[in-house]
Amino acid sequence: MRLALYFQRKAEIAVVLTDLAMGQMDGIALVRALRKIDPAVRVIASSGHFQKENLAVLNGLGVKVFLEKPYTPTSCCARCGWCWSRCR
């Protein structure tokens, strides 16, 4: 599971990129769980359509970087670099 992997390897993970719409656990639930493990985790939220309610919740959880689909490898890398340098 995603959380178990993060817990085991969090020292090796610089940024978590999560989609908001996932099967067993949505992105907001994942961010909440990650914050319990590591309050300083850097998170990028991705979606094809960001709803205002979700943005407000994510902002409240400290998510500062958003990546709208469809995205390119270049735009994804740029957002990861921005997150790495400014999110802490």
Tell me about this structure.
The protein has a domain at 22-71: Response regulator (Rossmann fold), CATH 3.40.50.2300. The protein is 48% helix and 15% strand. The protein has 4 helices and 3 strands. It has helices at residues 2-9, 27-37, 52-60, 73-86; strands at residues 16-19, 43-47, 65-68. A 3-stranded parallel sheet has the order 1-2-3, sandwiched between helices. The radius of gyration is 12 Å and the shape is globular. It starts with a helix and ends with a helix. The mean pLDDT is 89.
Task: Give the second-level CATH assignment, the architecture of the domain at 22-71.
Answer: 3-Layer(aba) Sandwich
Number of helices, counting only DSSP H or I runs of 4 residues or more: 4
How far is the N terminus from the C terminus? 25 Å
- The CATH topology of the domain at 22-71 corresponds to Rossmann fold
**How much helical structure, as a percent, in the residues?**
40-55%
Concise description?
The chain is an alpha/beta fold and 88 residues long. The protein is built from four helices and three strands; from the N terminus they run αβαβαβα.
Task: Detail the topology: elements first, then pairings.
Elements lengths: L1 H8 L6 E4 L7 H11 L5 E5 L4 H9 L4 E4 L4 H14 L2
Parallel strand pairs: 1-2, 2-3
Helix pairs in contact: 1-2
